[in-house]
Amino acid sequence: MKFVALGVLQGLTEFLPISSSGHLAVFEHYLRFHEPLFWIVFAHFGSLVALVLLIWRKIGILRRYAMKSLLLWVVIATIPAAVVGFVGLCFYDLFEKIAGSVKLISILWIINGIILILTKKLHRPYTSLSLKNTFVVGLAQALALLPGISRSGITISVALFLGIKEDDAVEFSILLSLPAILGANVVEFMKVKVMPHVVSLLSLFLASFVTSYLALMLLIIVTRRRKLHLFGIYTVALGVGLLLIDTIGLL
Fold this sequence. Notes:
By secondary structure, the protein is an all-alpha fold. The chain has one domain. Helix 2 packs antiparallel against helix 7 and helix 9 packs antiparallel against helix 10. It is globular. The model has no long low-confidence stretch (mean pLDDT 87).
């Protein structure tokens, strides 16, 4: 059951704007849940398959823009996160320290929530996707390497602040997550040395796949209805609550 729970946690938090890395780090910290790397990799694999399926079936941005332009924008927007990720490998111990700090993650959750809440009252002229604004979205994505900052949350919010329409903002964010998740899977998979039991793997994969697909659909609906601030309230409350718990020392 713990692997099903890990799959559900991964699936729900990977695409909803609440930071999967933050939830997994806090989950491991308080529940002492330290599993081999392969489990985390395979949980991400379930999310990756759900992402590819949804892009293939549901993403209208593939019809609204030229494929060459979209590919160029995705490549350009991926560069900042790739550079920061490479630098992060050079300062691995520092990133590990950040991921292990509940207090810092809580502060980043609060910042994440404030950004999402600010999207509630946006009134701005709409603009189309372009090389310039997709690169800015890519810069924002690089911040999501910090646990507590949601990749989907920060990219969609910045896109909305730039004036990009809700449909384009959420769908480009989803499209942009493909190389990010694929790259992370490849890097982590190369480190795996032991193959676990196939039944456990299958239960983890299915839990992650189903919940990831549902989370993606919910993300699209929430963004279109301009309700991202609801997730912002959640992450602010979560961050404040964990800061209080950490200060008082309840856990």
